[in-house]
């Protein structure tokens, strides 16, 4: 691995999560391609990209980027609620994604805490 962020467990986990988001949103109605589908995908991608972008910054900046990642993750969750309410995803799919977002959020928060305690 060449880039520092590639070694982060949270980055690796989020990379898989983004792929899963892309896979599930392929089944969304075509009229949502520029709406909810795009929004959820962009928010999920933002989580991953902000972890990557912040990794080689100062500790303060990295924490800032990680906080942006958390906000983007919350946006994904809100989009998943809308998807559930519109019957684009099942309750089982929602629950699985919700669990994954909680795991990612916990790892991001843990990383923030470890950076602050250095």
Descriptive report:
This protein is mainly alpha-helical and 118 residues long. It has one domain (8-116): de novo design (two linked rop proteins), CATH 1.20.1440. Helices cover 75% and strands 0% of the residues. The protein has helices at residues 9-25, 36-54, 59-85, 91-116. Helix 1 runs antiparallel to helix 2 (36-54), helix 1 (9-25) packs antiparallel against helix 4 (91-116) and helix 2 packs antiparallel against helix 3 (59-85). 25% of the residues are buried.
Helix and strand layout, with pairings?
Blueprint: H1 9-25, H2 36-54, H3 59-85, H4 91-116
Helix pairs in contact: 1-2, 1-4, 2-3, 3-4
The CATH C-level class name: Mainly Alpha
Helix proportion of residues, in percent?
Answer: over 70%
Strand count: 0
SS summary, helix count: 4
Name the shape in a single word.
elongated
- The CATH superfamily is identified as 23S rRNA-intervening sequence
Major sheet attributes? none
What kind of oligomer do you see?
Answer: single chain
Could you name the ranges where pLDDT drops below 50 across 5 or more consecutive residues? none
Structural class: mainly alpha
Radius of gyration: 15 Å
Which CATH architecture would you pick?
Up-down Bundle
Terminal residue distance: 24 Å
Number of domains: 1
Strand content: under 5%
Secondary-structure element series = HHHH
Mean pLDDT: 97
* CATH fold label: de novo design (two linked rop proteins)
In a few lines, what is going on in this structure?
With 118 residues, this protein is mainly α.
């Amino acid at each position: 691995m060449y880039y520092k962020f590639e070694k982060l467990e949270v980055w690796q986990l989020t990379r898989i999560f983004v792929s899963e988001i892309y896979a599930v949103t392929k089944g969304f109605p075509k009229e949502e391609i520029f709406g909810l589908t795009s929004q959820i995908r962009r928010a999920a991608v933002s989580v991953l990209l902000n972890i990557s972008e912040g990794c080689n910054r100062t500790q303060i900046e990295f924490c800032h980027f990680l906080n942006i990642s958390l906000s983007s993750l919350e946006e994904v969750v809100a989009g998943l609620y809308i998807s559930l309410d519109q019957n684009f995803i099942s309750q089982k799919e929602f629950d699985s994604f919700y669990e994954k977002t909680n795991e990612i959020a916990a790892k991001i928060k843990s990383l923030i805490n470890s950076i602050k305690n250095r």
